[in-house]
């Protein structure tokens, strides 16, 4: 069962659109920092989706509830890196992960927006959902306080490996924050599966963008 009475929010227009033919650079402001994101039209993961804006905004506005300072944060499906950059600005030890073909643009955006800052240096790593988790992220070494995921659920074949990845990284004490645009029946089916495994709460809804922000934690017996 899904619990919580979500706050109803609007994604704030806090960016200045810039247009260019090849790479679009989007300019955002979060946590008092100007963030410039380079998008690529070649990959799904290289565009800023609404869930990333929703989660970035929520993390910035709810730092008392979710204090990321000195916490270990893993972002899965990091895409352009916006959420990881915001988490980094908020003081977290961030590991941003995605598919190999997305990493170059992801690394570029993260290093460009976090260099010369005094906070913890973020890390960018390859993570294919459901593959090589034990080898690349052994449980004995890696424990995360927060798992962040935005717009990772859409029409694709990797939903079961995605869920398995969430289950793998969510240990007792870990908080999964997942923001997603809900469009298809598959999105709701994924949510049902998530609710059957985790304690799941709706933290916020952004009706204009059809985005829900959910918090999930491991059921402790």
UniProtKB/TrEMBL annotation:
Membrane-spanning intervals of the chain: none
Pfam families: Methyltransf_16
Coiled coil: none
MF annotations from Gene Ontology: methyltransferase activity
Entries under CDD domains matching the protein: AdoMet_MTases
Keyword set includes Methyltransferase: yes
Gene3D superfamilies according to UniProt: Vaccinia Virus protein VP39
Keywords carried by this UniProt record: Methyltransferase, S-adenosyl-L-methionine, Transferase
GO terms under biological process: methylation
Protein name (Swiss-Prot/TrEMBL): MT21C methyltransferase
Organism this protein belongs to: Rhynochetos jubatus (kagu)
Gene behind the chain: Mettl21c
